[in-house]
Amino acid sequence: MQWVHPYPYYLFLVGLLSLGLIIPLIRPPRTYGRNYLSLILSLAGVLLMLVALELFVTEEWAMLLLRNLQQIPLFFTPIVLFGLAREYSGYDSVRTVAWMALLSVPCLFFTGLIFSDEYHGLFRIESSIQTLWGLTQIQVEQTTLGFILSIYPIGVAVISGGIMLQNLIQDSPVNRAQHLLMFITYLIPLLNIIAVPLIPATLPGQMGFGFSIMAILLFILYYRFNLLVIWPVAKDRIFDAMKEGVLIFDRQYRLLEMNHAASDWLGRWAGSDMENGEEDVVSAWLEEDPAFHDAMRKRVRANTEREMVLEPDRTIMHLEVRSFPIARSRSGDEATLVIINDITAHKRYEDDLIRQATEDYLTGIANRRHFIDLYQKRHEQDHGSGSLLLLDLDHFKRVNDTYGHQTGDHVLRHFASLLESFFRDGFCGRIGGEEFGVYLPLTCDAAVEKARMFQDYLRDNPYVTTDKERIFTPVSTGVTEISADAPDFETVYRQADEAMYLAKENGRNQVVCHRDSCKQDNEQEDAK
Fold first, then answer.
1. Which residue in 189, 263, 338, 352 could disulfide with 247, CB within 3.0 to 4.6 Å?
2. How much is the pTM?
3. pLDDT at residue 436, as a whole number
4. Quick one: how far is CA 450 from the chain centroid?
């Protein structure tokens, strides 16, 4: 009758299934975690097949032998579970192996006692055949020593469960649902080991039934979440240790993984807690860069740089964002990996280099080289129209001699700030020493008028020392109009320089236009 009973066949087939799950785990990469999981599946598969055989046979000696063999996976499964829990929680792998070897010594001793019990009787008082659900199995009455020995693997199992529970509590919210199911799968054989010695058997092969549930859940986890490919290799520990932000999306672009760096940055960007609604935050962030988002959805590699403002202190962060489709040769693209690099320090270094190459170190406005570059670009855009002003501070040496060079530097910075604020319709730069240049998109007449207004502006805004002493900065200004067929900058500069020196010769603090470029204005000046 029991040879046609479906229950033993169920246990036997689930045992084969457990052994079949080992195949993807023995493929590279080989890790401690994958090896431990392979051992657990092997022990579970062997246990299930031994329980099924015990329910098939009818001879008491065969049942007792099969029951003795079942004790091997029952004793050693908690040891391997202990190693798996430590490995997943990020403990040192070599020390874990040493602990497992040490914990295995009592199990080897207990196993020897079980197989030699017929000679010393230390483990069992008696055994008998029990019938449940039309199936027969061996019923064993343990001695006090036997009961004590059975508590040892239970203690190891409880410790292993505690390690796993602690890791689950500290786990990433994104992975918590999947890992909770893995923890439940892990917990079933532990509870089974604890419960069987404490409650009367109401189910034939009760120990095997608990392990069969574990095997089925592992099978579901493998095909639903694909966890066994990398489980357990301290995945979250690795991700959270990375300085780069890591996001992983499935085929439907649902968020699968997000490490601590990405969660922190995106949470501060959104100004909200990422505990709930992390997928909405990530989607909103990606959609701010339509080109990158579109390339990502087309399953092509993409690379972009983005600026992100982080709350609550409005910190500006520069990021390099890259996406990589993760492909499988048989099934095509399965996922998309997005890696976020913090390049803020690099961008600041680049900005510093650009600033050093383009700004005057003292005044902060454009230096001579950058001023010439700006002039050339504007000259091309405006097709040669506009005017160039060259301004030189009169008697500036007296400022240095009277107040010292430090005050002289303050006066130059003050003058540059006035220059920049007044000539907003053009651009200015420090040509050298106390000489400054201004480009204006104006005719010579308008530029001369603007320069004279600036002289009034200077008189109204002198530099005030710490002693409340006012220092005025009169300037001599040369102006030249830039024609469409104007030559290079040096020639235009020479014309403005000639006009500026003419202003100095005429008594300083004057505006003079170069005669070849603005004859009408200079004729009016001569008439005056």
1. 338
2. 0.47
3. 96
4. 53
